[in-house]
Design goal:
Low-confidence stretches of chain B: 1-32
Radius of gyration of chain B: 23 Å
Distance between the termini of chain A: 61 Å
Distance between the termini of chain B: 30 Å
Strand content of chain B: 15-25%
Number of domains of chain B: 1
Order of helices and strands of chain B: HHEHEEEHHEEHHHHEHEEEEEEEEHEE
Low-confidence stretches of chain A: 1-20
Number of helices of chain A: 31
CATH topology of chain B: Alkaline Phosphatase, subunit A
CATH superfamily of chain B: Alkaline Phosphatase, subunit A
Number of strands of chain B: 17
Shape of chain A: globular
Number of helices of chain B: 11
Oligomer: heterodimer
Helix content of chain A: 40-55%
Largest sheet of chain B: 9 strands, mixed
Number of strands of chain A: 10
Mean pLDDT of chain B: 88
Radius of gyration of chain A: 33 Å
CATH class of chain B: Alpha Beta
Largest sheet of chain A: 2 strands, antiparallel
Strand content of chain A: under 5%
CATH architecture of chain B: 3-Layer(aba) Sandwich
């Protein structure tokens, strides 16, 4: 640290020196003919405008003097002290450039001369867009916006609508009419609980003429446990949830499901989002009233532990920093929409996040214990969950061990006492014991060994705890063996708003970090979450890059509304359910997906939310809907469906898949095996559980069609639906077709549709039999666009 | 940087002018180069520059075959058998190893090029004049998981698109009735689907697996390719009804690109369902051809069938074909009993691979098909236990054939004992850069913007090995 400051000061002094010295025409010519071409050809490809390997640029005086990770590149006038010259001389094999080959002696001499003459480098004007801009919008705390004035004053039902309508009016588009009641119920039911409305719910809503009919539907949905199964699942995308470590070895995270259930319960309980964040980062450090709360908070920290890990990484120091990196990157993307992982090896290229900032955060996570050990195959840490049973089981176990040890001790002492005094002490006293005693001791010790290897199986969770608290040194270019300055733990200086916390020497600082994140003044946390919720309701966020609010992220389409919603969210005590109500009870949410051709021309991407975008259901919702309409869905909550034991391999070298996906439970409870995600999910755009994803893509590919046409699952569901319909409705084809449409689409078929269906039935009955005909018809209905797209 | 295919705007523009069919879209896309995204994400695209290879067949030897016992003989290793390695072992090793262990196999020179090949590969030895050896490959990771991922995706600690998905993203496919990227009997361990997945690239570029390493090749199928429960007649009637319903639905919902795209996907799926089994079906091959691949011998039949399927995929327009040798009992991972393990594995693949090279050559396919052979790493010259070798990513041999590589050529070398790559080192990233180059793709231009930055197969690394290009 001190050395680099000295060098920097020396550099600054020199810089004054060369600015003062005017280059001679000969020096300029020497530079342009013999130096610049060499720098361009051999150096600047990796150390120039495009790349800055080792944080080094060699294309300006300032850059040369600033140098890179190892220090200044040149000391003007002193070639023998200039790293650039030492490197091209290639006398030190660890410090040689260029990486392939060597410059000619003439070129080395030219560059040496140039440095000797003061290393003149002509000034160039800076171009390009601003990077690392600390004034970037998302780093400033949200401000209460002025409510806009709109022309069509009848349309808004709330301030939210005024903000969207103002944008529509400015863009010359008008809101689509309100969606019909059937469409609305189907939309909001799938949206809030991920299931289709039942025919009874549809009938009830259609016949309810009261003005608050829709609001009561929303209340009913929000209080259903299915709500947490839907919205908790959204959060699990962001938390990159999975039941295996993925990457290399793929062993079971046999207790990750506890974190999943915690998330679902938190959404159902409408746990304030600030509290939710703090529990996930520092639940183990929070006070608790009882075992239940204590356990819940320990389980919450699974958020930090369930990431993808390379468990057979042979380089243990690298593995430790890889895990810290994964945690920093997840916290960054998931909670504040920043790609912090970029700063592990170099200052962030676009956002104002320095490598030092990264290692300021790394200190927090390195002071946190995630792993039991790093020896391959490494083991993650698990915490016994506090309860009366656990404590008593552990106490009993401890007593058994103590008793066994005491028995051995007693036996030894008795035998020793029985030995004749005065005898010479042999090397091993026990050899003198009677044979019977020796045998008994052998048995007792064997029993102890067995006991020690078999602690009671108590419930445990993937949790983190505190480790040795220490600040971390910069890993130069991400290399844990090349250390730079030690960086005291700190939060990101670029993010404005909250007071900067101080980090205690006795704690990792996770709690302080979490509290800083959920400070109402924090520029990013509330905005990022509000934007996520909007994205999950509408298919697109105000900031389309929901996981990136940095300089390369998209600009918000509605900055004022984003701030207004963020501040109202905080005012409502960070209540996510209140946010849902605010959104779904607006006119903006309730528009139909019909669109005027002129409006479509003006806003093809629906950036102004003047209509509701037609959207395909997600993988889980498609599967749940198929199970639901065919009457098979098992709505049991919580628990694990893993068939592989904790820490056991999902796959060994035989590649045999032992995971069972046949359960009729909701999709959120099916195992998520990284590297081998259930094919139904995988084909239908389930996100990669390696990094947080708040914006699942929707692709349309032929293998999805094959899945719908040919998979056992879809065919079986069709058979069950056919059986349900033929059982529920008496032997009347038209009535049965009616029932099928109501169940699957929430509407009755037209007479043309009934005719078409009847002709399919009779064709297939002729070719095979009536049972197959009904299965075929159900299959077609379930595979259709109408079933899996929401208007 | 490319835009994501199926952007709403592109789709809307397309439907607005009434181009509803994929076929027309791909016709229009034929003149498009790899930097411009056509409407159909899998439409064939021109490369960045003239390509030497149109497709790749990657023969993956899971476990890590020993270069020292196959293609990289070391006289000093034989001489100093049992003595200590005269220089330092790597800082990070997978398992402890002891002194030097000579190869139990004899080597001879073959062909006009005089390539050294051990007695493990008598059939392949006849083709050395068509092969291009890189003896100085090195990787970054000494464990299977990391090394397999590095080889397939360029990264050993992040989930990244597989090389086959990059290739289909860059070039599309010549036959939209088949997947652009297939992988035959891949291993589900050590990275599993990440090794053929598309990660953040659109799902359409992911590899399509036929079976997996636990499935015999004659039972390896693309999942969901056939409906076992109904006859073809019934299914045709179902699909016709579905199409009619979806079109009817579309007239009510108004022009909606997502819905149109899904209608097209069913048409394509139905065509794929007809064509794929025909390509998979090797019964149409003459018995001479089947024998060439060793299908008449139970020892070579399984891998031979995979190689023969690979050739059929290659001639039917599939862009990237991977064949994996990953026996469920003994992989190329001889921590002990090197002699028996390697002998068994080599016997299973030697004749089929030789047959594939010869067959491709006879049919004129070798010229523009890049065949690539190798494992995730080589093995140590030092002994593990009494008769095994440990993982060695520091230096090992891979070889290419065809696709614009120099025939009968040797590039790079390991040190005198074969521990480290020493001359003209070629990192896995360099192998990726070279493969893309042969396909006409500049590895620095083949990028995809995701989560705020442009990604490449070669990340920030990779140099094309120009010396091996013919």
């Amino acid at each position: 640290m001190r050395l680099s400051i000295l060098i920097l000061v020396a550099g600054m002094m020199c810089s004054t020196h060369i600015e003062a010295a005017e280059p001679t025409p000969a020096q300029i010519k020497h530079f342009e003919t013999h130096v610049r071409p060499v720098l361009v050809e051999h150096c600047q490809k990796c150390h120039g405008a495009e790349k800055q390997w080792g944080s080094l640029r060699l294309d300006s005086t300032a850059a040369l003097l600033k140098g890179g990770d190892t220090g200044p590149a040149i000391v003007p006038d002193k070639p023998d002290e200039s790293r650039l010259i030492l490197a091209i001389r290639q006398t030190d094999p660890d410090f040689s450039m260029p990486p392939k080959g060597k410059l000619t002696d003439k070129q080395i001499a030219d560059l040496t001369q140039w440095v000797k003459d003061g290393a003149y480098y002509p000034e160039t004007k800076a171009t390009g867009k601003p990077t690392r801009d600390p004034n970037h919008w998302s780093f400033q705390p949200p401000q209460w916006p002025v409510r806009p004035v709109v022309k069509n004053a009848n349309w808004p039902q709330s301030p939210l609508d005024e903000f969207t309508l103002a944008k529509m009016e400015a863009a010359g588009v008008s809101p689509s009419p309100r969606a019909g009641k059937r469409t609305l119920l189907r939309r909001v039911t799938y949206d809030l609980i991920g299931l289709p409305p039942t025919p009874e719910e549809m009938t009830a809503f259609l016949s309810d003429e009261s003005p608050d009919a829709f609001a009561r539907v929303v209340d009913r949905l929000l209080s259903s446990p299915a709500y947490g199964e839907r919205w908790g699942r959204h959060w699990l995308d962001v938390a990159r949830y999975a039941d295996s470590n993925g990457l290399d070895e793929n062993v079971a995270y046999g207790n990750a499901w506890r974190y999943r259930d915690y998330v679902l319960q938190s959404f159902n309980a409408d746990k304030p989002y600030d509290r939710f964040v703090v529990e996930q980062l520092a639940g183990d450090l929070l006070p608790f009233a009882d075992d239940v709360q204590h356990a819940e908070q320990l389980i919450a920290t699974g958020f930090l532990s369930i990431g993808a890990k390379v468990l057979a990484e042979v380089d243990e120091s690298k593995m430790e920093m890889d895990i810290v990196d994964e945690q920093i990157d997840t916290v960054g993307r998931a909670l504040i929409g920043l790609t912090l992982g970029c700063a592990r090896c170099h200052d962030h290229k676009f956002d104002p996040v320095a490598t030092a900032d990264y290692y300021g955060l790394a200190g927090i996570f390195k002071s946190t214990r995630t792993m039991e050990h790093f020896r391959k195959v490494a083991k993650w840490y698990e915490m016994p969950l506090p309860s009366e049973q656990t404590r008593s089981a552990l106490a009993t176990y401890q007593t058994q061990i103590t008793e066994k040890k005491a028995a051995i001790q007693q036996r030894v002492e008795q035998a020793e006492a029985a030995l004749t005094a005065g005898e010479a002490v042999p090397a091993k006293l026990e050899d003198k014991f009677p044979a019977e005693t020796q045998a008994a001791l052998k048995t007792l010790r064997a029993e102890l060994a067995v006991l020690e290897k078999s602690p009671p199986e108590v419930p445990t969770s993937m949790s983190v705890t505190e480790a040795v608290v220490a600040d971390v040194a910069i890993n130069i270019r991400g290399n844990p063996l090349k250390l730079g300055d030690v960086i005291p733990r700190r939060v990101l200086p670029a993010v404005r708003g909250p007071a900067v916390p101080s980090f205690p020497v006795e704690h990792s600082g996770r709690k302080e970090l979490a509290e800083w994140l959920v400070d109402p003044q924090h520029a990013l946390t509330s905005r990022v979450m509000v934007n996520r919720v909007w994205r999950w309701h509408f298919g697109a966020g105000f900031v389309k890059s929901v996981d990136n609010f940095g300089l390369l992220g998209d600009k918000p389409s509605h900055p004022e509304l984003l701030d207004w919603l963020a501040l109202r969210f905080i005012q409502d005590g960070w209540s996510i359910k209140s946010l849902h109500r605010r959104i779904v009870l607006s006119s903006t949410y309730q528009t139909s997906s019909d669109v005027d051709p002129m409006d479509l021309e003006r806003d093809p991407e629906n950036r102004w939310f003047a209509r509701h975008t037609v959207r395909r259901l997600e993988a889980e919702a498609i599967r749940d809907a198929l199970l639901s309409v065919s009457g098979q869905l098992d709505d049991a909550q919580q628990g694990s469906l893993l068939t592989v034991k904790n820490r056991a391999y999902f796959f060994d070298h035989t590649s045999k898949d032992l995971t069972d996906y046949s359960s009729p439970r909701r999709s959120v409870y099916l195992p998520i095996v990284r590297n081998n995600v259930y094919d139904f999910f995988q084909l239908l755009d389930y996100p990669d559980a390696a990094i947080p994803t708040g914006d699942r893509p929707t692709t349309t590919i032929a293998p999805q069609a094959l899945l719908m046409m040919n998979s056992d699952f879809v065919v079986t569901v069709s058979e069950r639906l056919a059986a349900r319909i033929t059982h529920e409705v008496t032997n009347d084809d038209a009535a049965r077709i009616m029932r099928l449409y109501v169940l699957a689409y929430g509407r009755e078929p037209s007479s043309t549709e009934i005719n078409t269906a009847q002709s399919l039935l009779s064709d297939i009955t002729t070719a095979t039999n009536a049972q197959q005909a009904w299965t075929s018809l159900c299959h077609v209905v379930l595979a259709s666009n109408e079933f899996i797209y929401l208007q | 940087m490319f835009d994501v295919p199926f952007s709403r705007r592109a789709m809307l523009q397309r439907s607005a002018v009434g181009f509803g069919s994929l076929a027309l879209a791909s016709m229009l896309a034929e003149t498009v180069t790899a930097d411009v995204r056509p409407v159909d994400p899998l439409a064939a695209r021109l490369p960045h520059f003239a390509a030497r290879a149109k497709r790749v067949i990657f023969l993956f030897m899971k476990g890590g075959p020993s270069h020292l016992d196959t293609f990289d003989p070391k006289p000093l290793l034989t001489r100093d058998d049992g003595k200590p390695l005269p220089f330092a072992k790597p800082r990070v090793q997978f398992a402890p190893t002891g002194n030097l262990l000579r190869s139990p196999w004899e080597f001879s020179q073959y062909g006009e090029s005089g390539a050294w090949v051990s007695t493990l590969f008598p059939h392949l030895a006849k083709h050395v004049d068509d092969m291009c050896f890189v003896h100085s490959v090195h990787g970054t990771n000494p464990a299977h998981g990391g090394a397999v991922l590095k080889l397939h995706t360029g990264s050993d600690n992040f989930v990244r698109p597989s090389m086959g998905s990059w290739v289909s993203y860059g070039l599309g496919t010549d036959n939209t009735n088949l997947p652009a990227f297939v992988t035959i009997c891949p291993t589900l361990a050590h990275g599993g689907i990440n090794n053929w997945g598309s990660a953040f690239l659109p799902a359409t570029y992911a590899g399509t697996p036929l079976g997996n390493a636990s499935v015999p090749a004659d039972q390896a199928r693309v999942k969901f390719i056939a409906n076992e429960r109904v006859s073809r007649t019934v299914q045709e009637r179902e699909v016709a009804a579905l199409m009619a319903m979806n079109r009817e639905h579309l007239t009510h919902s108004g022009p909606e690109p997502a819905l149109e795209a899904r209608i097209n996907s069913f048409e394509l799926a139905f065509r794929m369902q007809s064509e794929l089994p025909v390509v998979e079906d090797i019964s149409q091959e003459s018995s001479a051809t089947q024998q060439l691949y060793g299908l008449d011998d139970p020892v070579t039949a399984n891998f031979g069938r995979m190689c023969l399927m690979a050739r059929r995929f290659a001639e039917n327009g599939v862009r990237f074909i991977q064949v994996t040798h990953s026996d469920s009992k003994v992989q190329w991972d001889q921590h002990s009993d090197l002699k028996n393990g390697h002998a068994k594995n080599a016997l299973e693949v030697d004749k089929p691979i030789a047959g594939l090279l010869q067959d491709l050559k006879t049919r004129g396919l070798l010229e523009d098909t890049l065949v690539w052979w190798g494992g995730e790493f080589g093995r140590t010259p030092t002994v593990e236990g009494s008769n095994g070798r440990d993982h060695n990513p520091e230096g090992f041999t891979m070889w290419f054939a065809g696709g614009g590589t120099k025939a009968g050529y040797h590039h790079g070398a390991t040190d005198d004992y074969g521990f480290y790559a020493a001359v003209d080192k070629a990192h896995i990233h360099d192998m990726h850069a070279t493969m893309l180059h042969l396909l006409g793709l500049n590895h620095e231009r083949l990028t995809y913007r995701y989560a705020g930055r442009d990604f490449r197969l070669t990340d920030v690394e990779g140099n094309v090995i120009h010396e091996i290009i013919a």
